[in-house]
Every structure is written in C-alpha cells, then in structure tokens.
Amino acid sequence: xxKYVPVIGLEVHSELKSNSKNFSSSKNGEGEVNTNLCxxxxxxxxxxxxxxxxxxxxxLMVAMALNCNVPEKLCFDRKNYYxxxxxxxxxxxxxxxxxxxxxxxxxxTDSGPKKISIQDTHLEEDTANMDHMSTxxxxxxxxxxxxxxxxxTDPCINxxxxxxxxxxxxxxxxxxxxxxxxxxxxxxxRVDVNVSLKREEDSKLGTRVxxxxxxxxxxxREAIISExxxxxxxxxxxGVIEQETRRYDENLGTSVFMRSKVDAVDYKYxxxxxxxxxxxxxxxIDSVKNCLPILEYERRHKYIDVYGIGKVDAYTLTxxxxxxxxxxKIISYGSNPVDTSNMIVGFLLGYMNKNFLSxxxxxxNEDDFSSVIKMMSDGKISNKQAKDIFTKAIExxxxxxxxxxxxxxxxxxxxxxxxxxxxxxxxNTKVIEDYKNGKNVNGFIMGxxxxxxxxKVNPGITNMVLKEELEKL
Length: 473
Ligand code: ADP
Ligand code: MG
Prior knowledge:
The protein starts with a strand and ends with a helix. The protein is an alpha+beta fold and 473 residues long. It is built from 15 helices and 15 strands. 40% of the residues lie in helices and 20% in strands. It is elongated. It folds into 3 domains: 4-287, no CATH class; 294-407, no CATH class; 414-472, Arc Repressor Mutant, subunit A. Strands 5-6-9-1-10-11-12-13 form an 8-stranded mixed beta sheet. Strands 4-3-14 form a 3-stranded antiparallel beta sheet, with no helix packed on it. Strands 2-15 form a two-stranded antiparallel sheet. Adenosine-5'-diphosphate is lined by residues 7-11, 152-155, 194-196, 205-206, 208.
C-alpha cells in the first residue's frame, strides 16, 4: 500500500446539441469543412453576439440535474487570449456567475455510494478545430462558437475507477437530457484531468498536475494511473511535484511536460459587454425544471430497492433511457417488474443483439407486452411460449395478442398431461426398459414431452405426474 492518497479533479467539456451556434446563427452540426460559419464566428469587427436560448435551456437542465444552484441572472465574461483557433482573440465564457454552482453527482463505488461534488458548470463556446501538419496547420471553423458546457468537479475523486464512474454517470445525464450526444470519438466530450497526491494524515492537498484535453474515458483511466505512479516515484525518492500542465502521451504511456504554471496566461477576465445580463425568469426556470426526467441513478435504485430487480439487470435497464422508459411503461400496465425485467434483459436484448435490431425496430406495444408477461406470471403460458410469442411478433410483424390466441394456452390439466405422458411412454419403449434397469430417465422423458407439445405443458405439474406414472410401471 502506498502511503499517498490520490486526489483527482476533473473538468469536462461537452458540446451541446442545438440548431445554431452559441452566439451566431451558423449551423451547429456536421458539414463540409469551413461551411458552418459566419462573420461573427470568424471574429470580424462590428459583429455582435446573440445568446442561443436552446443552449441556455440545455445548460440549465444539466445544472439542475447536477443539483446545482442556478443564478438569477445569466452573465457572460471574456477570457482574453489569442490563438488561431480563436479568431476573436477572446472566448465568451462564464467566469463570475456560472449557470450552476455547488452541485453533486452520486456514483456507486465498490464500497458504497459516493457523492462527487461539483464546483460549477458554465456555458462557453468551442474553438475552431486545428490539424497540425509538419510545416503548416489546417483549420476548420465549423466548430468555432459551438455551445460548450464545462463542468468542474471538486478535488474529491480518489481513484481512476471513481473518475470513470463519475464520467459515465455524467455522460448519462447528458444523454438522458438529450443535451449532448456526448460522443467521445467525435470530440463531443473532452476531459482535463488534475492529479495530486497527499499523505493520508495531511489535510492540505498536494501540488497538482493538469493533463489537458483527453478524449476517451479509457485514456483518462490510463493517464490517472500512470500519473499517480509518476508522482509516487518522485515523492518517494524525495523529490517535489511542480505545478504544471502536461500532456498524456498514449504511446509513451506517461505524461510529458507542456508548460509550468509560471508560464500561465493571465486571461484578464471581464464582463462581456456585448451581451446584457439576462434575467432568468421563474417561469423559464420552472419550464426547464418541469422537463427534467428522473435520472439513471434514481431509477436504478428504485429498480433495485423497490422492484427487487438484480443490480446488474437494473444497470442494464437504466443505462439507456429509451429502454428504461419502455420497461416503465410496460409495468405501468400491471405486469410484475421482475418478470418483465427478466424478459427484457434475459431475452429481448439478446434477441435484438443477435439480429442487429434496436429498440425502434421492436414494434410490440407496452400494453401487449405487459399482457403476455401477466399470462406467464399466472402460469397460463410457459416462459418458452412467451418468448415464442415475442419472437413471432417481431419476425412476422404480427399483433402479439393474436399470436398468443393462436398458440393456445399452457396445458396444466393433470389428466391431459397424464394422457400425453403415456403416449410418450408407448412411443419410446427403450426408455422404459432403461428406467426398469435403474437408469435416471426423468430429464430425458421431460425433453420428449416438451418436444411433443412444443413446450406447452406446465413443467411443475408435468414433473409431478411423470413421477406418479413412472412409479406405476
Ligand atoms: P484552474 O482554473 O487553474 O484550472 P481550479 O481551481 O478551477 O483551477 O481547478 C481546476 C480543477 O483542478 C478542478 O477540477 C479541481 O477539482 C482540480 N484541483 C484543484 N486542486 C487540486 C489538487 N490539489 N489536486 C487535484 N485536483 C485539484
Ligand atoms: Mg483548468
């Protein structure tokens, strides 16, 4: 055990979904290189920013989902620096009064729930995209001005695992709210990772190192692990950690020096005077609040604690909001949550996976789904019959209830089952011989009965009657 405790704080940038950019009417989305732009995005003099209400709405939703306090007035500030990807010479951001402050996100670690506290979340604009070649650079201004939400955690994360749990929870909040597609492979979610070490007994935090712009969660994990290792070695050999910005190099498997804090730019923040302060009216705040869905964490715990669904299945159901909504609608028609969950996780998802289908391809309405589960729970049809009904409904695009009627109900009449068993006996005399010679044939005969009846007999009753009939032999 190392005598050092890792302390990690994350800054997560996500591109928000909206029709237009944060302060101009250029398209926010895909397009030919350098086509989604206008004079404002290029920093032409005389242009004026106009705030995108949709981006504000989405940021406000995220702020509320992060349990943040939201300000009475919306304010923007200028962060001044020049770089070719920032033609105005400043970025419009929120410095003094972010859209959300002092929030938290719950995660479930191996040792129980943990609250990851959020310093703030603020709305800003993305920069242009640059590609550096050997002797020149290419620049695409399509991304310049895309609404970007930056969420900053407190230094309260203590391992790479916790960091990943937080990032996954956060991404899922964005997805539940449809605030961002949060696709790391498209650079829609990017993370700055701050790491320091402190001795267990120290209350003061150690000096931190920042690794900027990591765009996959897998790399975040690697970067944290390797940085903890690097800092531990320095401290153990009596060295000191310098406050610096480093870049994690995936090929080297370690961070490399970029710049020290002494070289830090002074951004000379001040209020963005081209955007007036905008009062966030109660009616606006309320309309956003009323749209907030119940989020993954709360749903998952309800599934486990109230419905009695297993942990793993509860994770699977709530990972995707659409699937979770489908499940909730089904059980709202009265079917048992555990049986419904078992059918969705144990059958439907596997079936969809095997056949490359998504939930949109499954046209079984929730009411019918619920009815079939109810028939199954009541013992009117077997689990296999229920699966057959669903399979047929999907493959033949037929109404579930029609199929259920066609297939008939489960055979649970004792005398009917006795008759079938005796038929199986007379068709398979060799097995009866085996039984008389002391072999255990129950399982084999059950298989024959299931085959003969296409799995329609009630298994419990059949087992009982089979024992009676065998004893009679
Ligand atoms: P800056 O604006 O210079 O980046 P902040 O105080 O806003 O500084 O911190 C940015 C991030 O660094 C936050 O996520 C915060 O949690 C994290 N952080 C601050 N101090 C430490 C520390 N000692 N160890 C690890 N992370 C830290
Ligand atoms: Mg920072």
